[in-house]
Please model this.
Amino acid sequence: MSRRTTRTSVSFAAAALLGGIAAFSAPSAVAVGEGPSCCTNGTVNTSILHTYDSMVAELKTQAAKQPRMELEVIGQTVKGRDIHLVKYLSDPANPTILYLTQQHGNEQLTTEGTLEFIKSLGTGKNGGVLDGVNILIVPMLNADGAMGDVDFSLDDYVAAGDRHLTRYNAAGVDLNRDHVAKAQPETQALHDSVLSAYDIDYAVDLHHQGTTSRAGGELVSGSILHPTNGDVSPETLAGSKRLGAVVYNAIQPTGWGHLGRYVGGSERTIARNGLAAEYGISTLLFEMRGMSDHENESAVLGQKSNGYLIRQTVVTLTSTASAIADGSIDTVDASFWDTLPAQRS
Ligand SMILES: [Zn+2]
Model:
């Protein structure tokens, strides 16, 4: 690890202590894609990320503070870690959205942003949204992978710090290809205790992708896609496209955000397709730029980008919850999908 990387992690930690993500000012009028790139700016030092234990501690702190928040254990991972569901169920008559993070354990900034969002729901600034929408959140579904507590070697993984993070669960299975078989305990818990148990209208499945994709010639801050499986009803697909429009309208004008269309498959094993086909949930996949750890160095983005990538998650969650709560999602123009450029590496 270079000295430069060390200094960066120290300043990140200091800034985090001073004021969380607000301490990271997004560079104005500079797309996130033009920020630090993968292989010349160091890797992520994973000690600045929440551990599974520190995430659970934060969830418990928030549940104790926030009268409207409930915390439930819905199952255990392969290695026996409790899987948590955060619930804000204000009114059964309200529409319901599910936010899901870290099916892939090495894609953690989505969870960091989601924790900021949960904290914001306990404040006057954002708490009002709960009058109009029920919110379900499953953070860090793949906790074993996020902690590198797996039954296969991570010797080639590039991140610095006190742990590695991996895409697969402890048994080496990709949870986001397990939504038909539901063979893994993490996927079973999600389907049995969340997807089958609540009447969910919308879901955002949060991921990270590699660092090199471009759309319209510019590096992207992320990519999005609606379901593309033929079993999904036209109504569900239309809702998915509107959900994407809310996100696009919130991210694209920021100056740091630039979105492309994700190029993905149509299999029902993937949450984006499977949840829409099986439950009629309008889904959106959001892939943020750069992973927290990987065996391929080019997939990992230097941590100087963490501030606005975390912000991208917060904006995504805040804008979608708000648009569902005030009903504006029902009339948003989703025609941008017709011209959204597909990203290319
Ligand atoms: Zn992923």
In short: Residues 104, 107, 207 surround zinc ion (CB under 6 Å). The chain has eight helices and ten strands. The domain at 3-338 is CATH 3.40.630.10 (Aminopeptidase).
